[in-house]
């Protein structure tokens, strides 16, 4: 139920006397002395005694067709919107306006639909909701109402039908949709007395007066428009040129009337058939415009006379011929002047001044309350009140097409300075206009609406922003994956070597299960993409809305027109931008579908912006592990664009598609999993196509960009594609092909002056040399390639790349250089240390082989620390720094151990031991402290304790100046500081199996820690350490609570007890 928006009481609304009005059967031939308007005449002041408020300014008739061309009258009619001038206040049909004027006097008036378009009110009739039509159709099917007599009209002549565009099922209105008694009805709440508008679901009873009115209307239409029936017309009545209403569009009329009503100017459409009456006793040879009304003697009453009077006044007709009939046969006619109609019977049938006053009140009421251009209003009457309602948007009125055309005209005039209002008007136009009758206007409205949505975003920065290549964050991820692959390859030979922390991690780290495949409605990438900013989200929403509007316009646009061309350009811009948005959000299936649709819209394949988009998209697809969700999104999006593709003219049908187009389309039909090389081939082919194209530089019309940005984007895309393809050869084990590809890339990018790509090619050649290295010469070759690339990065100015890219690649090269030095050091330690090279070359007792290993590991540490300074927050780089410290600590521990078992101990063993301890401590500081690394912390501490208790004790025993703290004490403090490792949170990423595994390892390692702690305490007590009393208390406390206290409590209590100063220090003043 819809409550009324406003209501108004009509003070002068006495109902008319509906008794029969008797006419003399003898016709009257008294001529009128009043002047009249012929169609096309202009009048500045026309008035009569009964209509001093009004005058007709102009009558606009259907343009007459040339007799030389056709003898048939024009069947197009005249449309209201074509002659609506700015000063017009009300636009309506004569029938609708008659209902407004007669509403106060009609006991059961029909409702009136009202629309606001600018300063004008547009009035229509027969509004009906879609639910009401469906309900009525169903009930007609279930129980059809009693049939009423139907008079069949004579079909129009073939010539007229052929030239009328509305006879070819263009105006899609079913007979069931027309008003047949079902109407919006008013109900009154019995408790509050409020009035509501509802749709009556029950069929309206076919009352006798309604049935008679229907029959009379049918007879009247046949009487006026059937040539056979007009034979009975008197000779002095001749019909003017007219078009049968059945041939006219609902928004077209026989003639238009500019009618001045008080201060309101109205433009009225009329289908009233006008006759010319020539009286026998006329003093002048003047034809008086006359209307003809068919009636029988039982139906003529005051309401019918009021209707005839209003029709004559609004059409500027001065008399009417009442033709009475019997069973459809004319028995005679009676001529009555217009000003005499209210006085046909005493007392007067109606007061003309009261009719105008009431109409003025109603129209002023509508102008005051019908203010929203997006709404459809409904006016109806109950008792002595009129009520105004706001209807839903899904209604049908006879004024819809006129409203749509007027909205289009008004929106065009304000689109540049009032965009929001213009968008509302264009939307209403698209919803209400008859697109089948005026397809070009509908297409232009869609184009204009979409353009207003896109105009704020079509700035110079948009195409430049879309040309940007992958973000540095994506590049960092790619480089990290490449480094991991290189390190994994270095551990595949299976030869015995010193275990690094990375290899320890492979043994003890919790193995994370791969995440389950995402569902169709979940983001498909391995990591969630960064969210859109508010401005970007609004931009995406506007482009999506514009895409829908432009696609709707393509259904109506005529082929090979400027409108169609503009729509294609706008659609191309929308698909291009939305493909980039989908690419940013990692929705690769949608991005691929938009890209293929864009390729189908363009007349050729020589648009570098689009070609580079295809390359970037396939580069992203190459880095994606799973394609199932992307495949689903692709086919879902492609299904929505199939209709548009069928509507498009294949302009590039004669143009041979490049190979990369066929490869991309082939992939889209099957979506094979894991075909990374196919995507890289497409990306390289796209980049090469842009670089080798001989066609002139073309850009998207709405997203034009200069040559320099396109050239920069081409270089960056070619670099990314070529490097990714070379790296794929390397990762897949095709090292020879990868080396040849990289060498070709060096030549290619050196010729183009792309120094950044040259550096990446050198880095790849270094990776290949590192993988192929089996001796020192191979490692030196890899180290030389990495060193040269690093030198180029740090010394040269690279204007073609940003600082973030340079830092990312510099960190990657440093880590590769660190890996090369580490692998070379391990190679030297595994093989050269077994040779009989015992020559000591320094005071520390290092052999040549050991010195070479130490130098390589020192460089490894330096490279790791330099990479960490570039990216301090990188966890993997911290692992690598810790690994370098650990390898150096192992080297020093091994060297000191050999010295203690040899015959010539080093004179600087204490200093070497301190250096070894510092590397252990630095490794512990660099190693990330987390749930996944707690086991590694324990192992690293146990390894340091092993060194102190085995080698350190011996060094201190032989040293002349031992350290201030004994080696067992330092080992004990290293062990009890493990307490925080037993309270680290597991985090949300760890599964139950991982937590159980780590807990089991921690419990097992605690037994070893407990043994070492007890051994250290006993040794220190035996050595009579200054803190002997604290050690004894700590030992007894540990033994007492060992079975009940958790590891963290035991270690924390021991650390607190041992941290207290010794008793000797407490006694000092």
Automatic annotation (TrEMBL):
- Show the InterPro entries listed in the entry: EDRF1_N (IPR056582)
**Where do the segments described as Disordered lie?**
24-54, 125-158
Comp. bias (Pro residues): 143-158
Which ranges carry the EDRF1 N-terminal domain? Answer: 257-399
A Gene Ontology biological process noted in the UniProt record is: positive regulation of DNA-templated transcription
Q: Which Pfam families match?
A: EDRF1_N
For this entry, the protein name equals EDRF1 N-terminal domain-containing protein
| Source organism of the structure | Aphanomyces astaci
Q: Output the lineage of the source organism.
A: Eukaryota, Sar, Stramenopiles, Oomycota, Saprolegniomycetes
């Amino acid at each position: 139920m819809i409550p009324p928006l406003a209501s108004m009481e009509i003070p002068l609304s006495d109902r008319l006397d509906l008794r029969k009005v008797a006419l003399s059967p003898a016709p009257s031939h008294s001529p009128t002395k009043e002047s009249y308007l012929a169609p096309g005449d202009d009048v500045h002041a026309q008035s009569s005694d009964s209509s001093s408020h009004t005058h007709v300014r102009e009558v606009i008739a259907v343009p007459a067709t040339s007799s030389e061309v056709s003898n048939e009258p024009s069947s197009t009619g005249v449309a209201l919107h074509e002659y609506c001038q700015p000063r017009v206040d009300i636009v309506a049909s004569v029938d609708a306006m008659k209902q407004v004027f007669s509403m106060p006097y009609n006991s059961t008036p029909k409702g009136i639909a009202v629309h606001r378009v600018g300063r004008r009110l547009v009035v229509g009739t027969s509004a009906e909701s879609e639910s009401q039509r469906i309900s009525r159709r169903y009930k007609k099917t279930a129980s059809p109402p009693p049939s009423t007599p139907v008079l069949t009209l004579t079909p129009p002549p073939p010539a007229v039908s052929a030239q009328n565009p509305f006879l070819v099922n263009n105006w899609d209105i079913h007979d069931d949709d027309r008003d047949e008694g079902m109407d919006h009805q008013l109900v009154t709440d019995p408790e509050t007395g409020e009035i509501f508008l509802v749709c009556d679901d029950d069929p309206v009873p076919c009352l006798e007066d309604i049935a008679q009115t229907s029959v009379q209307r049918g007879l009247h239409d046949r009487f006026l428009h059937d040539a056979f029936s007009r034979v009975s017309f008197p000779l002095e009545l001749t019909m003017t040129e007219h078009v049968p209403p059945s041939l006219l569009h609902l928004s077209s009329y026989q003639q238009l009337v500019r009618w001045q009503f008080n201060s309101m100017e109205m433009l009225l459409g009329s289908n009233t058939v006008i006759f010319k009456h020539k009286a026998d006793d006329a003093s002048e040879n003047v034809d008086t415009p006359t209307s003809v009304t068919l009636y029988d003697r039982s139906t003529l009453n005051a309401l019918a006379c009021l209707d005839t009077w209003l029709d004559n006044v609004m059409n500027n007709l001065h008399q009417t011929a009442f033709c009475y009939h019997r069973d459809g046969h004319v028995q005679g006619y009676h001529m009555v002047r217009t000003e005499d109609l209210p006085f046909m019977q005493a007392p007067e049938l109606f007061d003309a001044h009261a009719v105008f006053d009431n109409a003025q009140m109603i129209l002023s009421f509508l102008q005051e309350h019908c203010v929203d251009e997006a709404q459809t209003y409904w006016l109806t009457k109950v008792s002595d009140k009129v009520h105004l309602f706001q209807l839903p948007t899904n209604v049908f009125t006879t004024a819809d097409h006129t409203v749509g055309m007027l909205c289009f005209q008004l929106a065009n005039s304000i689109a540049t300075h009032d965009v929001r209002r213009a968008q509302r008007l264009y939307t209403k136009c698209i919803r209400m206009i008859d697109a089948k009758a005026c397809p070009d206007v509908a297409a232009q409205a869609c184009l204009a609406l979409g353009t207003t949505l896109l105009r704020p975003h079509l700035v110079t920065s948009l195409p430049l922003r879309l040309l940007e290549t992958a973000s540095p964050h994506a590049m960092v991820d790619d480089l990290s994956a490449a480094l991991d692959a290189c390190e994994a390859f270095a551990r595949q030979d299976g030869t015995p070597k010193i275990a690094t922390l990375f290899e320890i991690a492979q043994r003890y780290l919790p193995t994370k299960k791969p995440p389950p495949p995402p569902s169709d409605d979940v983001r498909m990438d391995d990591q969630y993409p960064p969210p859109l900013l508010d401005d970007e989200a609004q931009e995406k929403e506007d482009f999506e809305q514009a895409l829908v509007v432009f696609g709707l316009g393509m259904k109506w646009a005529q082929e090979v027109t400027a409108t169609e061309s503009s729509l294609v350009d706008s659609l191309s811009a929308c698909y291009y931008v939305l493909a980039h948005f989908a690419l940013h959000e990692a929705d690769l299936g949608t991005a691929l579908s938009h890209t293929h649709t864009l390729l189908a819209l363009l007349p050729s394949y020589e648009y570098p912006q689009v070609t580079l988009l295809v390359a970037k998209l396939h580069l992203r697809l190459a880095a994606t592990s799973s394609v199932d969700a992307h495949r689903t999104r692709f086919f879902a999006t492609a299904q929505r664009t199939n209709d548009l593709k069928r509507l498009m003219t294949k302009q590039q049908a004669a143009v041979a598609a490049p190979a990369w187009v066929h490869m991309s389309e082939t992939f889209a039909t099957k979506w094979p999993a894991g075909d990374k090389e196919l995507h890289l081939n497409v990306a390289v082919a796209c980049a090469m196509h842009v670089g080798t194209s001989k066609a002139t530089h073309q850009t998207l019309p709405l997203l034009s960009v200069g040559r320099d940005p396109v050239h920069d984007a081409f270089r960056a895309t070619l670099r990314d594609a070529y490097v990714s393809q070379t790296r794929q050869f390397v990762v897949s084990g095709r090292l020879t092909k990868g080396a040849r590809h990289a060498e070709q890339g060096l030549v290619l990018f050196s010729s183009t002056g792309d120094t950044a790509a040259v550096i990446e090619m050198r880095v790849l050649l270094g990776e290949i040399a590192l993988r192929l290295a089996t001796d020192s010469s191979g490692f030196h070759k890899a180290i030389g390639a990495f060193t040269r690339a690093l030198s180029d990065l740090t010394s040269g100015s690279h204007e073609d790349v940003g600082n973030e890219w340079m830092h990312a690649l510099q960190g990657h090269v440093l880590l590769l250089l660190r890996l090369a030095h580490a692998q070379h050091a391990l190679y030297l330690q595994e093989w050269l240390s077994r040779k009989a090279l015992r020559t000591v070359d320094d005071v520390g007792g290092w052999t040549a082989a050991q010195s070479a290993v130490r130098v390589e590991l020192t460089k490894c540490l330096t490279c790791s620390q330099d990479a960490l300074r570039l990216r301090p927050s990188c966890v993997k780089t911290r692992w690598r720094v810790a690994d370098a410290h650990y390898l150096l600590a192992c080297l020093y521990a091994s060297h000191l151990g050999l010295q203690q078992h040899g015959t010539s101990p080093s004179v600087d063993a204490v200093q070497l031991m301190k250096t070894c301890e510092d590397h252990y401590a630095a490794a512990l500081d660099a190693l990330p402290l987390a749930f996944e690394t707690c086991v590694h912390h324990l192992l690293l501490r146990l390894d340091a304790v092993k060194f102190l208790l085995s080698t350190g004790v011996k060094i201190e025993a032989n040293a002349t100046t031992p350290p201030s703290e004994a080696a067992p004490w330092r080992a004990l403090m290293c062990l009890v500081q493990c307490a925080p490792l037993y309270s680290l949170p597991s985090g949300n990423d760890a599964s139950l199996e991982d937590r159980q595994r780590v807990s089991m390892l921690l419990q097992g390692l605690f037994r070893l820690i407990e043994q070492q702690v007890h051994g250290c305490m006993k040794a220190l007590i035996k050595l009579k350490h200054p803190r002997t009393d604290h050690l004894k208390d700590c030992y007894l406390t540990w033994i007492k609570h060992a079975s009940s206290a958790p590891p963290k409590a035991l270690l924390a209590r021991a650390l607190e007890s041992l941290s207290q100063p010794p008793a000797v220090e407490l006694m000092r003043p």
